[in-house]
Amino acid sequence: MLSYILTMKKLIAFYILIATIGLSAKSQSVSPFVIASAGNYYVGTNAQLSWTLGEVVTSTFSSSGAIITQGFQQNTYTVVAINEPSENLFNIKLFPNPTNGYFKIQWENIENTNILINVTNNQGIIIIKKTINSSENQAEIDLINYPISTYLITVSTTNGNRIKHFKIIKK
Length: 171
Hints:
Layout: H1 2-24, E1 38-43, E2 48-53, E3 59-63, E4 66-70, E5 91-95, E6 102-108, E7 114-120, E8 126-133, E9 138-142, E10 149-157, E11 162-170
Antiparallel strand pairs: 1-2, 3-4, 5-6, 6-9, 7-8, 7-10, 10-11
């Protein structure tokens, strides 16, 4: 009987030990952690910015009522529209598109002002800035010395009124 009591005491001590370890053990926690070559998080008074560079795995899987996202830079995106002036006000054409280097912009119904043409590369840098009197009705732009890419052309008046945006492809 004494051996039975010792065995039971050892068994109870073992269960208490297991329960103590189980209650004091730390479990995994999931926190936003990204393996990226660069990144940061900024908070200002009116906005916040979070960015990463070189995040290797980003994908989203969804089914009825559930979304799983890999990578932490896939939040809700807000699309902001750019309201272009009515096409009836100004008749502006850009050709040829795609181009091998030279292209023309022609316009009608723009009078008594100077036209500002900005050519922006895919890094957002204005590479060509040209001012032309609207009475000339056209401008020729030279992209011969620039790399093959897609460029954004902004046509506006010199007082800042945007008239039209074009996207042109240089082959």
